[in-house]
Design brief:
The protein is α/β, with parallel strands linked by helices. The chain has helices spanning 11-14, 20-27, 64-77, 95-101, 119-125, 141-152, 200-218, 220-230, and strands spanning 2-6, 32-36, 50-52, 60-62, 82-92, 106-111, 128-131, 185-186, 189-190. Helices cover 35% and strands 18% of the residues. The longest helix is centred in the last third of the chain and has 19 residues, at 200-218. The chain binds adenine.
Length: 231
């Protein structure tokens, strides 16, 4: 699967995808990542890619020409590219979206900077528009990295153990139960003793109870949905 980051600041992103699980996925060719910088397409004689908002408003917006020319060129060379814009003014990105988009051949993640992007660019090009949460970031780069990470781990072969996709929070309607590792006792805190006894069905029951508690406490909205879905 291919990702293209459209960003004025590719360096902010590059390091994250050159190490650990996703770095390995890139090296093994499971995912491919490339970058397009709108500044390379500007026809402005001062190389500008931003301008003040028309009609007033604080701050600058990314102008249409560099982004439009770049996206036109990208679509010509990759007609199946699925173009995604990151902005706080959008539907919230979810695990279901991550799974769905992992079946695409090529996802293009367009990050806004300054106060955002001229709306005509979004209207003309967006296949989808996502927000990652109800807060405002200084730019879309972090949001586009969040999408790329969450999508990539659903691409076959990216995670070593395919099972690890199955039991995770958001794959089921409940948050995950707490997990423990060695040592059995750490600074007087013992692992739940039932976990040590090797009775798998008992551990499964216990984990489900704990998952219910966590979900009810942290995410009453998911808890309610989980209970309704099970009926
Ligand atoms: N750009 C700025 N804030 C954002 C958010 N919450 N989600 C996606 N893109 C953004």
């Amino acid at each position: 699967m291919r990702f293209t980051f459209v960003t004025l600041f590719p360096k902010l992103i590059q390091e994250y995808f050159s190490d650990s699980i996703l770095g390995r996925a890139v090296n093994e060719g499971k995912i491919r990542i490339d970058y397009r910088n709108p500044r390379d397409y500007t026809k402005d004689r001062h190389n500008r890619v931003d301008a003040p908002m028309i009609g007033g408003g604080a701050g600058m917006l990314m102008t249409p020409q560099p982004l439009m020319d770049m996206l036109r060129n990208l679509k010509e060379t990759s007609p199946k590219a699925h173009i995604v814009f990151l902005t706080p003014v959008a539907k919230r990105f979810t695990q279901n979206d991550a799974k769905r988009l992992s079946n695409m051949e090529h996802v293009v993640l367009v990050s806004g900077r300054y106060e955002g992007i001229d709306e005509r660019v979004i209207e003309a090009n967006a296949d989808e528009v996502f927000s990652i949460g109800d807060y405002i970031l200084t730019g879309g780069e972090l949001a586009s990295m969040v999408l790329c990470d969450a999508i990539s781990r659903n691409v076959e072969g990216v995670l070593g153990n395919a099972n690890s996709l199955e039991v995770e929070s958001f794959e089921s309607p409940l948050l995950e139960a707490p997990s423990f590792t060695k040592p059995n006792i750490y600074e007087d805190n013992a692992v739940i003793s039932e976990f040590l006894k090797g009775n798998h069905s008992k551990v499964t029951d216990l984990k489900r109870g704990l998952a219910l508690c966590k979900t009810k406490y942290f995410r009453p909205d998911l808890y309610k949905k989980g209970i309704t879905d099970e009926k």
